[in-house]
Amino acid sequence: QVSIKSDDDQVVEGKGIGRKVIDKMLQTYSSELAGKDFAYDGEKCLFTVGPLPQNNFEFTVIMEETSARAVGGSPGHESPGPGDKKRVKRSHLPKQFVVGISYAARIPLRSVALALQGSDSDHAQDALRVLDIVLRQQQAKRGCLLVRQSFFSDDSRNLVDLTGGVSGCRGLHSSFRTTMNGLSLNMDVSTTMIVTPGPVVNFLLTNQNVRDVRDIDWPKAKRMLKNLRVKATHNNMEFKIIGLSDQPCSRQTFPMKVRSGSSEGQTVDITVEEYFKSKQVFLEKPYLPCLDVGKPKRPNYLPIELGNMISLQRYTKALSSQQRTTLVEKSRQKPQDRMRVVTDAVKSNRYDDDPIFSSCGIKIDSQLTRVEGRVLSAPMLVVGNSQDCVPFKGRWNYNNKKLFEPVRIERWAIVNFSARCDMSRISRELINCGRTKGIIIEGPYSLVDEDNQARRCAPIVRVERMFEKVKANLPGPPEFLLCVLPERKNCDIYGPWKKKNLHEMGIVTQCIVPSAKMNDQYFTNVLLKINAK
Protein backbone atom coordinates (compact mmCIF):
# COMPACT_ATOMS: atom_id res chain seq x y z
CA GLN A 1 0.00 0.00 0.00
CA VAL A 2 1.28 3.45 -0.96
CA SER A 3 0.72 6.88 0.55
CA ILE A 4 2.12 10.07 -0.96
CA LYS A 5 2.19 13.32 0.98
CA SER A 6 3.58 16.72 0.06
CA ASP A 7 6.04 18.58 2.31
CA ASP A 8 3.10 20.33 4.03
CA ASP A 9 1.65 16.92 5.03
CA GLN A 10 -1.19 17.08 2.47
CA VAL A 11 -2.20 13.80 0.78
CA VAL A 12 -1.46 13.87 -2.96
CA GLU A 13 -4.55 12.76 -4.90
CA GLY A 14 -3.61 13.39 -8.55
CA LYS A 15 -2.80 10.25 -10.54
CA GLY A 16 -0.43 12.05 -12.88
CA ILE A 17 1.84 13.44 -10.17
CA GLY A 18 1.58 10.14 -8.28
CA ARG A 19 3.11 8.17 -11.15
CA LYS A 20 5.91 10.74 -11.52
CA VAL A 21 6.73 10.58 -7.80
CA ILE A 22 6.80 6.76 -7.77
CA ASP A 23 9.04 6.68 -10.87
CA LYS A 24 11.41 9.15 -9.22
CA MET A 25 11.40 7.09 -6.02
CA LEU A 26 12.29 3.92 -7.93
CA GLN A 27 15.09 5.77 -9.71
CA THR A 28 16.49 7.24 -6.48
CA TYR A 29 16.08 4.34 -4.05
CA SER A 30 16.49 1.33 -6.33
CA SER A 31 19.18 -0.26 -4.14
CA GLU A 32 17.08 0.07 -0.95
CA LEU A 33 14.25 -1.70 -2.81
CA ALA A 34 16.52 -4.54 -3.97
CA GLY A 35 16.23 -3.41 -7.61
CA LYS A 36 12.59 -4.54 -7.76
CA ASP A 37 10.34 -3.32 -10.56
CA PHE A 38 6.89 -2.01 -9.64
CA ALA A 39 3.41 -2.22 -11.06
CA TYR A 40 1.63 0.92 -9.81
CA ASP A 41 -2.08 1.60 -10.32
CA GLY A 42 -1.68 5.38 -10.03
CA GLU A 43 -3.50 5.55 -6.69
CA LYS A 44 -2.75 3.52 -3.54
CA CYS A 45 -1.68 0.08 -4.74
CA LEU A 46 1.82 -0.99 -5.73
CA PHE A 47 2.88 -4.53 -6.65
CA THR A 48 6.26 -6.27 -6.88
CA VAL A 49 7.34 -9.74 -7.98
CA GLY A 50 8.57 -11.26 -4.71
CA PRO A 51 8.94 -9.54 -1.31
CA LEU A 52 10.81 -6.32 -0.58
CA PRO A 53 13.68 -6.34 1.95
CA GLN A 54 11.33 -5.09 4.68
CA ASN A 55 7.60 -4.56 5.19
CA ASN A 56 7.61 -0.79 5.69
CA PHE A 57 9.49 2.05 4.00
CA GLU A 58 9.39 5.82 4.08
CA PHE A 59 11.26 7.78 1.42
CA THR A 60 11.72 11.47 0.75
CA VAL A 61 11.39 12.16 -2.97
CA ILE A 62 12.52 15.46 -4.48
CA MET A 63 10.97 16.42 -7.82
CA GLU A 64 13.04 18.89 -9.84
CA GLU A 65 10.05 20.66 -11.34
CA THR A 66 8.96 24.26 -11.78
CA SER A 67 5.44 25.32 -10.92
CA ALA A 68 3.29 26.67 -13.74
CA ARG A 69 2.94 29.86 -11.74
CA ALA A 70 6.66 30.60 -11.73
CA VAL A 71 6.31 32.89 -14.73
CA GLY A 72 8.10 36.19 -14.28
CA GLY A 73 5.22 38.64 -13.91
CA SER A 74 2.34 36.59 -15.21
CA PRO A 75 -0.84 38.70 -15.13
CA GLY A 76 -2.76 38.48 -11.92
CA HIS A 77 0.45 38.27 -9.90
CA GLU A 78 2.99 40.95 -9.25
CA SER A 79 5.99 41.13 -11.56
CA PRO A 80 9.29 39.98 -10.04
CA GLY A 81 10.45 43.16 -8.44
CA PRO A 82 12.59 43.15 -5.29
CA GLY A 83 9.69 42.20 -3.06
CA ASP A 84 8.56 39.48 -5.45
CA LYS A 85 11.83 37.72 -6.18
CA LYS A 86 11.39 35.53 -3.11
CA ARG A 87 8.17 34.14 -4.51
CA VAL A 88 9.71 33.40 -7.90
CA LYS A 89 12.75 31.83 -6.31
CA ARG A 90 10.56 29.77 -4.02
CA SER A 91 8.56 28.51 -7.02
CA HIS A 92 11.72 27.21 -8.64
CA LEU A 93 12.76 25.26 -5.55
CA PRO A 94 12.44 21.45 -5.82
CA LYS A 95 9.13 20.00 -4.62
CA GLN A 96 9.47 17.49 -1.81
CA PHE A 97 7.22 14.45 -1.20
CA VAL A 98 7.14 11.76 1.45
CA VAL A 99 6.27 8.30 0.12
CA GLY A 100 5.21 5.57 2.53
CA ILE A 101 5.14 1.91 1.50
CA SER A 102 3.66 -0.80 3.71
CA TYR A 103 3.06 -4.52 3.11
CA ALA A 104 -0.63 -5.31 2.48
CA ALA A 105 -1.07 -8.79 1.01
CA ARG A 106 0.45 -11.59 -1.05
CA ILE A 107 -1.22 -12.54 -4.34
CA PRO A 108 0.05 -15.86 -5.74
CA LEU A 109 0.20 -15.93 -9.54
CA ARG A 110 -0.30 -19.68 -9.35
CA SER A 111 -3.96 -18.98 -8.54
CA VAL A 112 -4.52 -18.23 -12.24
CA ALA A 113 -3.15 -21.63 -13.23
CA LEU A 114 -5.36 -23.32 -10.62
CA ALA A 115 -8.41 -21.47 -11.94
CA LEU A 116 -7.60 -22.64 -15.47
CA GLN A 117 -7.51 -26.21 -14.17
CA GLY A 118 -10.99 -25.80 -12.72
CA SER A 119 -9.98 -25.42 -9.07
CA ASP A 120 -11.52 -22.79 -6.84
CA SER A 121 -9.12 -19.94 -6.15
CA ASP A 122 -9.79 -16.84 -4.09
CA HIS A 123 -6.88 -14.93 -5.64
CA ALA A 124 -7.40 -15.57 -9.39
CA GLN A 125 -9.26 -12.32 -10.04
CA ASP A 126 -6.75 -10.37 -7.92
CA ALA A 127 -3.87 -11.83 -9.95
CA LEU A 128 -5.58 -10.91 -13.23
CA ARG A 129 -6.12 -7.38 -11.90
CA VAL A 130 -2.40 -7.04 -11.16
CA LEU A 131 -1.53 -8.15 -14.71
CA ASP A 132 -4.04 -5.60 -16.07
CA ILE A 133 -2.35 -2.89 -13.99
CA VAL A 134 0.96 -3.79 -15.67
CA LEU A 135 -0.73 -3.22 -19.04
CA ARG A 136 -2.03 0.18 -17.90
CA GLN A 137 1.36 1.18 -16.52
CA GLN A 138 3.03 0.45 -19.85
CA GLN A 139 0.69 2.81 -21.68
CA ALA A 140 0.89 5.49 -18.95
CA LYS A 141 4.66 5.62 -19.46
CA ARG A 142 4.04 6.20 -23.18
CA GLY A 143 1.89 9.24 -22.37
CA CYS A 144 -1.42 7.64 -23.37
CA LEU A 145 -4.85 8.62 -22.08
CA LEU A 146 -6.12 5.78 -19.86
CA VAL A 147 -9.83 5.01 -19.61
CA ARG A 148 -10.17 1.90 -17.44
CA GLN A 149 -8.48 -0.84 -19.54
CA SER A 150 -8.46 1.21 -22.75
CA PHE A 151 -5.63 3.48 -23.85
CA PHE A 152 -5.43 6.23 -26.46
CA SER A 153 -2.24 7.70 -27.94
CA ASP A 154 -1.62 11.27 -29.06
CA ASP A 155 -1.67 10.64 -32.81
CA SER A 156 -3.69 12.89 -35.14
CA ARG A 157 -4.32 9.89 -37.43
CA ASN A 158 -6.51 8.38 -34.69
CA LEU A 159 -8.80 11.42 -34.46
CA VAL A 160 -12.25 11.68 -36.03
CA ASP A 161 -13.93 15.10 -36.16
CA LEU A 162 -17.41 14.96 -34.62
CA THR A 163 -18.00 18.74 -35.01
CA GLY A 164 -18.70 21.01 -32.05
CA GLY A 165 -15.07 20.98 -30.91
CA VAL A 166 -15.28 17.27 -30.11
CA SER A 167 -13.22 14.48 -31.69
CA GLY A 168 -13.52 10.74 -31.52
CA CYS A 169 -10.20 9.16 -30.57
CA ARG A 170 -9.48 5.60 -31.68
CA GLY A 171 -7.48 3.47 -29.29
CA LEU A 172 -7.26 -0.07 -27.94
CA HIS A 173 -8.64 -2.11 -25.07
CA SER A 174 -6.41 -4.73 -23.47
CA SER A 175 -6.94 -7.08 -20.55
CA PHE A 176 -6.08 -10.60 -19.46
CA ARG A 177 -8.71 -13.36 -19.53
CA THR A 178 -8.80 -17.02 -18.60
CA THR A 179 -10.00 -19.02 -21.62
CA MET A 180 -10.09 -22.64 -22.78
CA ASN A 181 -6.65 -22.06 -24.30
CA GLY A 182 -5.21 -20.81 -21.01
CA LEU A 183 -4.29 -17.28 -19.99
CA SER A 184 -5.06 -15.00 -22.95
CA LEU A 185 -4.56 -11.34 -23.78
CA ASN A 186 -7.86 -9.88 -24.93
CA MET A 187 -7.29 -6.89 -27.21
CA ASP A 188 -9.76 -4.95 -29.34
CA VAL A 189 -10.25 -1.51 -30.81
CA SER A 190 -11.87 1.15 -28.62
CA THR A 191 -13.11 4.71 -29.02
CA THR A 192 -13.55 7.64 -26.64
CA MET A 193 -14.40 11.33 -27.02
CA ILE A 194 -11.85 14.07 -26.47
CA VAL A 195 -11.76 17.85 -26.78
CA THR A 196 -10.34 18.74 -30.19
CA PRO A 197 -6.81 20.11 -29.59
CA GLY A 198 -5.90 23.52 -30.98
CA PRO A 199 -6.49 27.22 -30.28
CA VAL A 200 -9.11 27.91 -27.60
CA VAL A 201 -10.82 30.50 -29.83
CA ASN A 202 -11.26 27.95 -32.63
CA PHE A 203 -12.65 25.43 -30.14
CA LEU A 204 -15.29 27.90 -28.94
CA LEU A 205 -16.30 28.87 -32.48
CA THR A 206 -16.88 25.25 -33.49
CA ASN A 207 -18.43 24.29 -30.15
CA GLN A 208 -21.05 27.03 -30.42
CA ASN A 209 -21.33 26.81 -34.21
CA VAL A 210 -20.66 30.50 -34.84
CA ARG A 211 -18.29 32.21 -37.27
CA ASP A 212 -17.37 35.41 -35.47
CA VAL A 213 -15.84 35.64 -31.99
CA ARG A 214 -18.24 38.49 -31.21
CA ASP A 215 -21.11 35.96 -31.42
CA ILE A 216 -19.67 33.68 -28.74
CA ASP A 217 -21.90 33.13 -25.71
CA TRP A 218 -19.32 33.77 -22.97
CA PRO A 219 -21.31 32.41 -19.99
CA LYS A 220 -21.74 29.18 -21.96
CA ALA A 221 -18.04 29.27 -22.91
CA LYS A 222 -17.08 29.65 -19.25
CA ARG A 223 -19.03 26.53 -18.31
CA MET A 224 -17.52 24.58 -21.20
CA LEU A 225 -13.90 25.58 -20.51
CA LYS A 226 -13.90 25.05 -16.75
CA ASN A 227 -11.34 22.44 -15.61
CA LEU A 228 -9.89 21.98 -19.10
CA ARG A 229 -6.15 22.38 -19.56
CA VAL A 230 -4.40 24.72 -21.97
CA LYS A 231 -0.83 25.42 -23.03
CA ALA A 232 0.28 29.05 -23.38
CA THR A 233 1.80 29.68 -26.80
CA HIS A 234 4.24 32.35 -25.54
CA ASN A 235 5.98 30.22 -22.90
CA ASN A 236 4.77 26.60 -23.44
CA MET A 237 3.50 26.30 -19.86
CA GLU A 238 0.38 24.30 -19.02
CA PHE A 239 -2.50 25.65 -16.97
CA LYS A 240 -5.90 24.53 -15.72
CA ILE A 241 -8.80 26.86 -16.54
CA ILE A 242 -10.99 27.85 -13.59
CA GLY A 243 -13.01 30.57 -15.35
CA LEU A 244 -12.92 33.74 -17.45
CA SER A 245 -12.08 37.33 -16.59
CA ASP A 246 -14.90 39.84 -16.04
CA GLN A 247 -13.38 42.32 -18.50
CA PRO A 248 -11.61 41.99 -21.88
CA CYS A 249 -7.81 42.01 -21.99
CA SER A 250 -7.76 45.70 -22.86
CA ARG A 251 -9.63 46.63 -19.65
CA GLN A 252 -8.89 43.79 -17.20
CA THR A 253 -6.37 45.09 -14.65
CA PHE A 254 -4.23 43.52 -11.96
CA PRO A 255 -1.78 45.00 -9.40
CA MET A 256 1.90 44.90 -10.35
CA LYS A 257 4.89 46.12 -8.37
CA VAL A 258 7.10 48.53 -10.27
CA ARG A 259 10.68 49.19 -9.14
CA SER A 260 11.50 52.83 -8.57
CA GLY A 261 15.23 53.38 -8.17
CA SER A 262 16.59 51.77 -5.02
CA SER A 263 13.28 51.82 -3.16
CA GLU A 264 10.96 48.90 -2.65
CA GLY A 265 8.80 50.14 -5.51
CA GLN A 266 5.10 50.83 -5.70
CA THR A 267 2.07 48.84 -6.77
CA VAL A 268 0.24 50.07 -9.85
CA ASP A 269 -2.76 48.73 -11.75
CA ILE A 270 -1.93 47.58 -15.27
CA THR A 271 -4.13 45.99 -17.93
CA VAL A 272 -3.40 42.51 -19.23
CA GLU A 273 -2.85 43.92 -22.73
CA GLU A 274 -0.32 46.47 -21.45
CA TYR A 275 1.51 43.80 -19.49
CA PHE A 276 1.96 41.51 -22.48
CA LYS A 277 2.92 44.44 -24.69
CA SER A 278 5.75 45.18 -22.23
CA LYS A 279 6.88 41.59 -22.76
CA GLN A 280 6.84 42.03 -26.56
CA VAL A 281 3.70 39.91 -26.91
CA PHE A 282 1.20 41.88 -28.99
CA LEU A 283 -2.43 40.79 -28.83
CA GLU A 284 -4.54 40.68 -31.97
CA LYS A 285 -7.86 40.40 -30.12
CA PRO A 286 -7.57 42.48 -26.93
CA TYR A 287 -11.37 42.83 -26.90
CA LEU A 288 -11.71 39.16 -25.86
CA PRO A 289 -11.78 38.08 -22.20
CA CYS A 290 -8.88 36.30 -20.50
CA LEU A 291 -8.70 32.73 -19.28
CA ASP A 292 -8.40 32.61 -15.49
CA VAL A 293 -5.77 29.94 -14.84
CA GLY A 294 -5.04 30.83 -11.22
CA LYS A 295 -6.82 29.99 -7.99
CA PRO A 296 -10.25 31.17 -6.77
CA LYS A 297 -8.76 33.89 -4.55
CA ARG A 298 -5.71 34.57 -6.67
CA PRO A 299 -6.52 34.97 -10.37
CA ASN A 300 -3.91 34.53 -13.06
CA TYR A 301 -4.95 35.92 -16.44
CA LEU A 302 -3.98 34.43 -19.80
CA PRO A 303 -5.29 36.07 -23.00
CA ILE A 304 -7.61 33.58 -24.62
CA GLU A 305 -5.85 33.94 -27.99
CA LEU A 306 -2.61 32.69 -26.41
CA GLY A 307 -4.19 29.44 -25.18
CA ASN A 308 -4.11 26.09 -26.98
CA MET A 309 -6.25 23.16 -25.87
CA ILE A 310 -4.02 20.28 -24.75
CA SER A 311 -4.59 16.99 -26.53
CA LEU A 312 -6.10 13.84 -24.97
CA GLN A 313 -8.57 15.63 -22.67
CA ARG A 314 -11.69 13.51 -22.28
CA TYR A 315 -15.01 15.03 -23.30
CA THR A 316 -17.61 13.66 -20.88
CA LYS A 317 -20.70 15.67 -21.81
CA ALA A 318 -23.55 14.09 -23.78
CA LEU A 319 -23.16 14.01 -27.55
CA SER A 320 -25.82 15.32 -29.89
CA SER A 321 -27.71 12.90 -32.14
CA GLN A 322 -25.64 13.94 -35.15
CA GLN A 323 -22.37 13.52 -33.22
CA ARG A 324 -23.38 10.02 -32.12
CA THR A 325 -24.20 9.07 -35.70
CA THR A 326 -20.88 10.43 -36.98
CA LEU A 327 -18.98 8.62 -34.21
CA VAL A 328 -20.57 5.28 -35.09
CA GLU A 329 -20.06 5.71 -38.83
CA LYS A 330 -16.42 6.84 -38.66
CA SER A 331 -15.39 4.40 -35.93
CA ARG A 332 -16.58 1.41 -37.92
CA GLN A 333 -13.72 -0.70 -39.31
CA LYS A 334 -13.58 -3.62 -41.71
CA PRO A 335 -12.59 -6.92 -40.06
CA GLN A 336 -9.25 -7.02 -41.92
CA ASP A 337 -8.38 -3.47 -40.80
CA ARG A 338 -9.42 -4.21 -37.24
CA MET A 339 -7.26 -7.35 -37.19
CA ARG A 340 -4.27 -5.45 -38.59
CA VAL A 341 -4.58 -2.68 -35.97
CA VAL A 342 -4.67 -5.20 -33.11
CA THR A 343 -1.75 -7.33 -34.33
CA ASP A 344 0.37 -4.24 -35.02
CA ALA A 345 -0.34 -2.96 -31.50
CA VAL A 346 0.73 -6.26 -29.90
CA LYS A 347 4.03 -6.14 -31.80
CA SER A 348 4.72 -2.44 -31.11
CA ASN A 349 3.97 -2.78 -27.38
CA ARG A 350 6.76 -5.38 -27.01
CA TYR A 351 5.24 -7.11 -24.01
CA ASP A 352 8.09 -9.63 -23.81
CA ASP A 353 10.47 -6.78 -22.90
CA ASP A 354 8.45 -5.83 -19.82
CA PRO A 355 10.51 -6.73 -16.71
CA ILE A 356 7.47 -7.71 -14.64
CA PHE A 357 6.06 -10.04 -17.30
CA SER A 358 9.54 -11.52 -17.72
CA SER A 359 9.85 -12.06 -13.95
CA CYS A 360 6.47 -13.81 -13.95
CA GLY A 361 7.46 -16.01 -16.90
CA ILE A 362 4.70 -14.56 -19.10
CA LYS A 363 5.23 -14.46 -22.85
CA ILE A 364 2.59 -13.21 -25.27
CA ASP A 365 2.25 -14.59 -28.78
CA SER A 366 2.20 -11.83 -31.39
CA GLN A 367 -0.29 -13.75 -33.55
CA LEU A 368 -4.04 -13.98 -33.05
CA THR A 369 -5.48 -17.17 -31.57
CA ARG A 370 -6.61 -19.55 -34.32
CA VAL A 371 -9.91 -21.39 -33.94
CA GLU A 372 -11.81 -23.74 -36.23
CA GLY A 373 -14.94 -22.34 -37.78
CA ARG A 374 -17.53 -23.12 -40.41
CA VAL A 375 -19.74 -21.07 -42.68
CA LEU A 376 -23.44 -21.59 -42.06
CA SER A 377 -25.78 -21.53 -45.00
CA ALA A 378 -28.45 -18.84 -45.03
CA PRO A 379 -31.81 -19.94 -43.61
CA MET A 380 -34.62 -20.82 -46.02
CA LEU A 381 -37.67 -18.61 -45.62
CA VAL A 382 -41.28 -19.58 -46.15
CA VAL A 383 -43.55 -16.81 -47.50
CA GLY A 384 -47.24 -16.66 -48.42
CA ASN A 385 -48.89 -19.70 -50.04
CA SER A 386 -46.10 -21.83 -48.46
CA GLN A 387 -43.61 -20.73 -51.09
CA ASP A 388 -39.89 -21.07 -50.37
CA CYS A 389 -37.83 -17.90 -50.57
CA VAL A 390 -34.21 -18.72 -51.46
CA PRO A 391 -31.61 -16.09 -50.47
CA PHE A 392 -29.16 -14.88 -53.10
CA LYS A 393 -25.89 -13.18 -52.10
CA GLY A 394 -27.15 -12.61 -48.59
CA ARG A 395 -30.47 -11.03 -49.64
CA TRP A 396 -34.05 -12.13 -49.96
CA ASN A 397 -36.11 -10.92 -52.90
CA TYR A 398 -39.78 -10.35 -52.03
CA ASN A 399 -40.89 -9.30 -55.50
CA ASN A 400 -44.16 -10.99 -56.45
CA LYS A 401 -44.37 -12.71 -53.05
CA LYS A 402 -46.90 -12.38 -50.27
CA LEU A 403 -46.18 -12.42 -46.54
CA PHE A 404 -46.70 -15.63 -44.56
CA GLU A 405 -49.07 -14.01 -42.03
CA PRO A 406 -50.19 -10.64 -43.43
CA VAL A 407 -52.17 -8.35 -41.12
CA ARG A 408 -55.13 -6.06 -41.65
CA ILE A 409 -54.85 -2.37 -40.71
CA GLU A 410 -58.10 -0.41 -40.44
CA ARG A 411 -57.86 2.54 -38.07
CA TRP A 412 -54.62 4.41 -38.70
CA ALA A 413 -53.28 7.83 -39.59
CA ILE A 414 -50.18 9.60 -40.92
CA VAL A 415 -48.59 12.38 -38.91
CA ASN A 416 -46.15 14.73 -40.60
CA PHE A 417 -43.33 16.52 -38.77
CA SER A 418 -41.67 17.25 -42.13
CA ALA A 419 -42.24 20.56 -43.91
CA ARG A 420 -41.79 19.03 -47.37
CA CYS A 421 -43.75 15.82 -47.71
CA ASP A 422 -46.57 14.54 -49.95
CA MET A 423 -48.54 12.46 -47.45
CA SER A 424 -51.19 11.50 -50.03
CA ARG A 425 -48.53 9.87 -52.23
CA ILE A 426 -47.01 8.02 -49.24
CA SER A 427 -50.45 6.74 -48.24
CA ARG A 428 -51.26 5.63 -51.78
CA GLU A 429 -47.93 3.87 -52.36
CA LEU A 430 -48.08 2.13 -48.96
CA ILE A 431 -51.59 0.80 -49.59
CA ASN A 432 -50.75 -0.42 -53.12
CA CYS A 433 -47.50 -2.10 -52.02
CA GLY A 434 -49.29 -3.69 -49.05
CA ARG A 435 -51.94 -5.17 -51.36
CA THR A 436 -49.24 -6.97 -53.40
CA LYS A 437 -47.81 -8.45 -50.18
CA GLY A 438 -51.17 -9.59 -48.86
CA ILE A 439 -51.53 -6.78 -46.28
CA ILE A 440 -54.98 -5.19 -46.33
CA ILE A 441 -54.61 -1.51 -45.48
CA GLU A 442 -57.69 0.68 -45.40
CA GLY A 443 -57.39 4.37 -46.25
CA PRO A 444 -55.99 6.46 -43.40
CA TYR A 445 -58.51 8.20 -41.18
CA SER A 446 -56.53 11.39 -41.28
CA LEU A 447 -53.38 13.03 -42.61
CA VAL A 448 -52.18 15.24 -39.75
CA ASP A 449 -49.74 18.06 -40.51
CA GLU A 450 -47.78 19.84 -37.78
CA ASP A 451 -48.53 23.55 -37.32
CA ASN A 452 -45.80 25.88 -38.54
CA GLN A 453 -45.60 27.59 -35.14
CA ALA A 454 -45.08 24.26 -33.34
CA ARG A 455 -41.87 23.59 -35.30
CA ARG A 456 -40.07 26.17 -33.15
CA CYS A 457 -40.99 24.38 -29.89
CA ALA A 458 -39.05 21.77 -27.95
CA PRO A 459 -39.36 18.14 -29.19
CA ILE A 460 -41.52 17.00 -26.25
CA VAL A 461 -43.92 19.93 -26.76
CA ARG A 462 -44.14 19.19 -30.49
CA VAL A 463 -45.05 15.56 -29.78
CA GLU A 464 -47.74 16.51 -27.24
CA ARG A 465 -49.31 19.03 -29.62
CA MET A 466 -49.31 16.48 -32.43
CA PHE A 467 -51.11 13.96 -30.22
CA GLU A 468 -53.77 16.52 -29.42
CA LYS A 469 -54.38 16.96 -33.15
CA VAL A 470 -54.49 13.16 -33.67
CA LYS A 471 -57.14 12.80 -30.94
CA ALA A 472 -59.20 15.54 -32.52
CA ASN A 473 -59.12 13.91 -35.97
CA LEU A 474 -59.71 10.23 -35.07
CA PRO A 475 -62.90 8.66 -33.63
CA GLY A 476 -60.89 6.51 -31.22
CA PRO A 477 -57.39 5.28 -30.39
CA PRO A 478 -55.54 4.32 -33.62
CA GLU A 479 -54.18 0.84 -34.26
CA PHE A 480 -51.17 2.30 -35.99
CA LEU A 481 -49.51 5.67 -36.64
CA LEU A 482 -47.07 6.33 -39.48
CA CYS A 483 -44.76 9.17 -38.47
CA VAL A 484 -42.95 11.22 -41.12
CA LEU A 485 -39.86 12.80 -39.58
CA PRO A 486 -37.91 15.80 -40.91
CA GLU A 487 -35.38 15.13 -43.62
CA ARG A 488 -32.37 14.53 -41.42
CA LYS A 489 -30.91 11.62 -39.47
CA ASN A 490 -31.57 11.02 -35.77
CA CYS A 491 -34.24 13.67 -35.40
CA ASP A 492 -34.77 14.98 -31.85
CA ILE A 493 -38.45 14.10 -32.13
CA TYR A 494 -37.77 10.35 -32.51
CA GLY A 495 -37.16 9.57 -28.81
CA PRO A 496 -40.11 11.53 -27.36
CA TRP A 497 -42.40 10.20 -30.13
CA LYS A 498 -41.52 6.56 -29.45
CA LYS A 499 -41.87 7.04 -25.70
CA LYS A 500 -45.29 8.63 -26.06
CA ASN A 501 -46.57 5.91 -28.40
CA LEU A 502 -45.09 2.75 -26.93
CA HIS A 503 -44.69 3.56 -23.24
CA GLU A 504 -47.63 5.83 -22.51
CA MET A 505 -50.27 5.06 -25.16
CA GLY A 506 -49.47 1.51 -26.33
CA ILE A 507 -49.81 2.45 -30.00
CA VAL A 508 -47.84 0.73 -32.78
CA THR A 509 -45.83 3.30 -34.71
CA GLN A 510 -43.39 3.34 -37.60
CA CYS A 511 -41.12 6.31 -38.38
CA ILE A 512 -39.89 7.12 -41.86
CA VAL A 513 -37.77 9.87 -43.39
CA PRO A 514 -38.81 10.90 -46.92
CA SER A 515 -36.13 10.34 -49.54
CA ALA A 516 -35.76 10.43 -53.30
CA LYS A 517 -35.69 6.60 -53.44
CA MET A 518 -39.18 5.90 -52.11
CA ASN A 519 -39.76 3.01 -54.54
CA ASP A 520 -41.40 -0.40 -54.20
CA GLN A 521 -38.37 -1.86 -52.42
CA TYR A 522 -38.42 0.99 -49.89
CA PHE A 523 -42.11 0.50 -49.06
CA THR A 524 -41.64 -3.29 -48.93
CA ASN A 525 -38.98 -2.89 -46.24
CA VAL A 526 -41.23 -0.48 -44.30
CA LEU A 527 -44.17 -2.89 -44.54
CA LEU A 528 -42.07 -5.81 -43.25
CA LYS A 529 -41.50 -3.80 -40.06
CA ILE A 530 -45.13 -2.69 -39.79
CA ASN A 531 -46.43 -6.23 -40.32
CA ALA A 532 -44.13 -7.66 -37.62
CA LYS A 533 -45.10 -4.94 -35.14
Automatic annotation (TrEMBL):
SMART domains: DUF1785
One MF term in the entry's GO annotations: RNA binding
Domain of life of the organism encoding this protein: Eukaryota
Database matches in Gene3D superfamilies: 3.40.50.2300, paz domain
Alphabetized CDD domains for the sequence: PAZ_argonaute_like (cd02846)
Family membership noted in the UniProt record: Belongs to the argonaute family. Ago subfamily.
Matching PANTHER family: EUKARYOTIC TRANSLATION INITIATION FACTOR 2C
Pfam families: ArgoL1, ArgoL2, ArgoN, PAZ, Piwi
Alphabetized PROSITE patterns for the sequence: PAZ, PIWI
Domain Piwi, chain residue ranges per copy: 480-533
Organism: Aegilops tauschii subsp. strangulata (Goatgrass)
Descriptive protein name: PAZ domain-containing protein
Region (Disordered): 69-89
Residue stretches making up the PAZ domain: 199-311
